[in-house]
Amino acid sequence: MYRSSVIPPLRLVFLMWLSFSIQFYGYIDLGFLGILPRTVSGLIGILAAPLIHGSVSHLVSNTFPVLFLGSAVYIFYDRIATQVFFHGYFLTNVLVWVIGRPYYHIGASGLVYALASFLIFFGIFRRNFRSILISIIVLLIYGGLIYGIYPQDSFVSWESHLMGFIVGMGSAFGLSKIRKVYS
C-alpha cells in the first residue's frame, strides 16, 4: 500500500528532473513552456509549467514537498487522491493563466500549495480525529507556506501559490462531503 502511494508523486518528480536535465544538459531554456497568462501560447503551460524549473534549488524546493505531500494524500485518502492531485495540478494552473501577471510562471509550487492546503483544510472540514491529526502535522511542517501567497518577490509566482492554496482548500471542502474517502 505505502509503496504504491509513492508512485504517482514519484512519477511527477521523475518528469520534473527529466525536464530539468534536458534543459540543463541541452542548454535549452524551457521557460517558454511556462504559463503565460491570457495568451494562446501560454496555454501549454497549464500542462508543462509544473515540470519546468529555473534552477536546481527551485527544483529541489519543489521535489521534497511533492513527494511528501503527494504521498500523504495517496496514503491517507487514496480514494480521492487522484482527484486532489488533478485539481492541484490543472485547476491551479488554469487559474494562474486567468489571473497571473504577464510573465512566464514555472514550477510545481502551485501543486505543493494545493496539496498542503488540502491536507490542512480537509481535517478542519471533515472533523474526525485522523484527519485533524494529519492537518496538524502538515500545518506544523508546512505552515510557513502561508507567507508565499503574498506578493514579496517579483521573480516568484505568488499567484501560483495563492491559486494552489485556494484550489486545495476548495477541494478539501468539496471532497469532505463525501462519506467514504479512506482506504
From TrEMBL:
<dbReference type="GO" id="GO:0006508">
    <property type="term" value="P:proteolysis"/>
</dbReference>
<dbReference type="Pfam" id="PF01694">
    <property type="entry name" value="Rhomboid"/>
</dbReference>
<keyword id="KW-1133">Transmembrane helix</keyword>
<dbReference type="GO" id="GO:0008233">
    <property type="term" value="F:peptidase activity"/>
</dbReference>
<feature type="transmembrane region" description="Helical">
    <location>
        <begin position="132"/>
        <end position="150"/>
    </location>
</feature>
<feature type="transmembrane region" description="Helical">
    <location>
        <begin position="84"/>
        <end position="100"/>
    </location>
</feature>
<feature type="transmembrane region" description="Helical">
    <location>
        <begin position="106"/>
        <end position="125"/>
    </location>
</feature>
<keyword id="KW-0645">Protease</keyword>
<keyword id="KW-0378">Hydrolase</keyword>
<feature type="domain" description="Peptidase S54 rhomboid">
    <location>
        <begin position="44"/>
        <end position="176"/>
    </location>
</feature>
<dbReference type="InterPro" id="IPR035952">
    <property type="entry name" value="Rhomboid-like_sf"/>
</dbReference>
<keyword id="KW-0472">Membrane</keyword>
<feature type="transmembrane region" description="Helical">
    <location>
        <begin position="162"/>
        <end position="178"/>
    </location>
</feature>
<dbReference type="InterPro" id="IPR022764">
    <property type="entry name" value="Peptidase_S54_rhomboid_dom"/>
</dbReference>
<protein>
    <submittedName>
        <fullName>Rhomboid family intramembrane serine protease</fullName>
        <ecNumber>3.4.21.-</ecNumber>
    </submittedName>
</protein>
<feature type="transmembrane region" description="Helical">
    <location>
        <begin position="56"/>
        <end position="77"/>
    </location>
</feature>
<keyword id="KW-0812">Transmembrane</keyword>
<feature type="transmembrane region" description="Helical">
    <location>
        <begin position="12"/>
        <end position="36"/>
    </location>
</feature>
